[in-house]
Amino acid sequence: MNNIAATFKEKKLKLTPQRIAVYEYLKSTKEHPSAEVIYKALQVNYPTMSLATVYKALKTLVEVNLVQEINVGEGNFRYDGNVCPHSHIQCLQCGRVDDIEDVCFQDLNEKIAPHTDYDVLTNQVYFYGICKDCKNCEHN
Ligand SMILES: [Zn+2]
Ligand SMILES: [Zn+2]
Fold first, then answer.
1. Comparing C-alpha atoms, which of 87, 61, 75, 79 is closest to residue 3?
2. SS3 helix, strand, coil % of the chain, rounded to 5?
3. What is the pTM of this model?
4. What is the pLDDT of residues 26-80, one digit of tens each?
5. Which residues surround ligand 1, an ion (CB under 5 A)?
6. CATH entry, 85-140, from 3.30.565.10, 3.30.1490.190, 3.30.43.10, 3.90.1150.10
7. pLDDT confidence tier of residue 139, bands split at 50, 70 and 90
Protein backbone atom coordinates (compact mmCIF):
# COMPACT_ATOMS: atom_id res chain seq x y z
CA MET A 1 0.00 0.00 0.00
CA ASN A 2 2.87 2.36 0.86
CA ASN A 3 4.30 1.67 -2.54
CA ILE A 4 1.35 3.01 -4.52
CA ALA A 5 0.77 5.96 -2.17
CA ALA A 6 4.42 7.04 -2.37
CA THR A 7 4.62 6.56 -6.14
CA PHE A 8 1.46 8.52 -6.83
CA LYS A 9 2.55 11.30 -4.52
CA GLU A 10 5.92 11.51 -6.21
CA LYS A 11 4.33 11.65 -9.68
CA LYS A 12 1.74 14.12 -8.40
CA LEU A 13 -1.09 11.85 -9.48
CA LYS A 14 -4.41 11.56 -7.73
CA LEU A 15 -4.75 8.35 -5.79
CA THR A 16 -8.39 7.50 -6.46
CA PRO A 17 -10.21 4.57 -4.82
CA GLN A 18 -10.56 3.04 -8.30
CA ARG A 19 -6.82 3.10 -8.93
CA ILE A 20 -6.18 1.56 -5.52
CA ALA A 21 -8.80 -1.12 -6.15
CA VAL A 22 -7.28 -2.10 -9.51
CA TYR A 23 -3.78 -2.15 -8.04
CA GLU A 24 -4.78 -4.20 -5.01
CA TYR A 25 -6.65 -6.66 -7.15
CA LEU A 26 -3.60 -7.20 -9.34
CA LYS A 27 -1.40 -7.58 -6.27
CA SER A 28 -3.73 -10.24 -4.93
CA THR A 29 -3.76 -12.49 -7.98
CA LYS A 30 -1.23 -14.42 -10.04
CA GLU A 31 -3.67 -15.01 -12.86
CA HIS A 32 -2.64 -12.15 -15.16
CA PRO A 33 -6.19 -10.97 -15.75
CA SER A 34 -7.37 -8.91 -18.71
CA ALA A 35 -9.05 -5.52 -18.14
CA GLU A 36 -12.45 -7.19 -18.61
CA VAL A 37 -11.70 -9.78 -15.93
CA ILE A 38 -10.55 -7.06 -13.50
CA TYR A 39 -13.66 -5.04 -14.31
CA LYS A 40 -15.98 -7.97 -13.56
CA ALA A 41 -14.13 -8.87 -10.35
CA LEU A 42 -14.35 -5.29 -9.04
CA GLN A 43 -18.05 -4.95 -9.89
CA VAL A 44 -18.89 -6.60 -6.58
CA ASN A 45 -17.37 -3.83 -4.47
CA TYR A 46 -17.38 -1.02 -7.04
CA PRO A 47 -20.68 -1.38 -8.91
CA THR A 48 -20.40 2.11 -10.42
CA MET A 49 -16.91 1.63 -11.85
CA SER A 50 -16.97 1.46 -15.65
CA LEU A 51 -14.74 -0.60 -17.90
CA ALA A 52 -13.30 2.68 -19.24
CA THR A 53 -12.26 3.63 -15.69
CA VAL A 54 -10.53 0.28 -15.27
CA TYR A 55 -8.66 0.83 -18.54
CA LYS A 56 -7.62 4.33 -17.46
CA ALA A 57 -6.48 3.11 -14.05
CA LEU A 58 -4.44 0.34 -15.71
CA LYS A 59 -2.85 2.79 -18.13
CA THR A 60 -1.78 5.04 -15.25
CA LEU A 61 -0.48 2.13 -13.16
CA VAL A 62 1.56 0.84 -16.11
CA GLU A 63 2.95 4.32 -16.76
CA VAL A 64 4.25 4.65 -13.21
CA ASN A 65 5.60 1.10 -13.37
CA LEU A 66 3.49 -0.38 -10.58
CA VAL A 67 1.86 -2.82 -12.96
CA GLN A 68 3.22 -4.72 -15.93
CA GLU A 69 1.34 -4.96 -19.21
CA ILE A 70 1.71 -8.29 -20.95
CA ASN A 71 0.89 -8.79 -24.60
CA VAL A 72 0.68 -12.52 -25.14
CA GLY A 73 -0.16 -12.02 -28.78
CA GLU A 74 -3.88 -12.47 -28.72
CA GLY A 75 -4.67 -8.78 -29.21
CA ASN A 76 -5.73 -8.78 -25.61
CA PHE A 77 -3.49 -7.34 -22.96
CA ARG A 78 -3.03 -8.98 -19.59
CA TYR A 79 -1.92 -7.28 -16.42
CA ASP A 80 0.52 -8.33 -13.74
CA GLY A 81 1.05 -6.77 -10.30
CA ASN A 82 4.53 -8.27 -10.24
CA VAL A 83 6.88 -5.84 -12.02
CA CYS A 84 10.08 -7.77 -11.35
CA PRO A 85 11.41 -9.23 -14.61
CA HIS A 86 10.01 -12.71 -15.15
CA SER A 87 8.81 -14.80 -18.05
CA HIS A 88 5.34 -16.01 -18.86
CA ILE A 89 3.81 -19.10 -20.34
CA GLN A 90 0.39 -19.17 -21.92
CA CYS A 91 -1.88 -22.13 -22.51
CA LEU A 92 -2.84 -22.35 -26.17
CA GLN A 93 -6.07 -24.07 -25.24
CA CYS A 94 -7.63 -22.09 -22.38
CA GLY A 95 -5.54 -18.92 -22.58
CA ARG A 96 -4.38 -18.89 -18.95
CA VAL A 97 -1.08 -17.16 -18.30
CA ASP A 98 1.36 -18.29 -15.62
CA ASP A 99 4.67 -17.01 -14.33
CA ILE A 100 7.87 -18.87 -14.95
CA GLU A 101 9.82 -18.36 -11.80
CA ASP A 102 13.45 -18.93 -10.86
CA VAL A 103 14.72 -18.70 -14.44
CA CYS A 104 16.43 -15.53 -15.52
CA PHE A 105 16.80 -14.58 -19.15
CA GLN A 106 19.12 -11.65 -18.57
CA ASP A 107 21.88 -13.55 -20.40
CA LEU A 108 19.73 -13.34 -23.52
CA ASN A 109 20.55 -9.64 -23.63
CA GLU A 110 24.25 -10.47 -23.90
CA LYS A 111 23.52 -13.16 -26.46
CA ILE A 112 21.77 -10.83 -28.87
CA ALA A 113 24.10 -7.88 -28.29
CA PRO A 114 26.43 -8.86 -31.18
CA HIS A 115 23.41 -8.91 -33.52
CA THR A 116 22.22 -5.36 -32.92
CA ASP A 117 23.69 -1.89 -32.52
CA TYR A 118 21.24 -1.19 -29.68
CA ASP A 119 22.24 -1.10 -26.06
CA VAL A 120 20.13 -4.05 -24.96
CA LEU A 121 18.44 -3.25 -21.67
CA THR A 122 15.68 -5.76 -21.24
CA ASN A 123 13.72 -8.53 -22.89
CA GLN A 124 10.35 -10.17 -22.65
CA VAL A 125 10.16 -13.90 -23.23
CA TYR A 126 6.88 -15.71 -23.75
CA PHE A 127 6.37 -19.43 -23.90
CA TYR A 128 3.32 -21.26 -25.16
CA GLY A 129 2.04 -24.71 -24.39
CA ILE A 130 -0.78 -26.74 -22.90
CA CYS A 131 -1.47 -26.30 -19.16
CA LYS A 132 -1.90 -29.14 -16.70
CA ASP A 133 -5.68 -28.74 -16.49
CA CYS A 134 -6.12 -28.86 -20.26
CA LYS A 135 -3.77 -31.82 -20.51
CA ASN A 136 -5.81 -33.71 -17.92
CA CYS A 137 -9.05 -32.95 -19.76
CA GLU A 138 -7.75 -34.48 -22.95
CA HIS A 139 -7.00 -37.71 -21.16
CA ASN A 140 -10.52 -38.11 -19.80
ZN1 LIG B 1 -5.18 -24.65 -20.40
ZN1 LIG C 1 3.70 -12.57 -14.29
1. 61
2. 45, 15, 40
3. 0.83
4. 999 999 999 999 999 999 999 999 999 999 999 999 999 999 999 877 677 999 9
5. 91, 93-94, 131, 134
6. 3.30.1490.190
7. low
Residue 18 scores a pLDDT above 70: yes
Query: What is the distance in A from the centroid of ligand 1 to the CA of 110?
Result: 33
Indicate which ligand has the atom closest to the C-alpha of 88: 2
CATH number of 1-83: 1.10.10.10
User: What string of H, E and C letters represents the secondary structure of 13-45?
Assistant: CCCCHHHHHHHHHHHHCCCCCEHHHHHHHHCCC
Residues of each annotated binding site for Zn(2+) = 91, 94, 131, 134
Give 103-124 pLDDT, tens digit per residue: 777 788 889 999 999 999 888 8
Please say whether the beta carbons of 61 and 15 come within 8 A. Answer: no
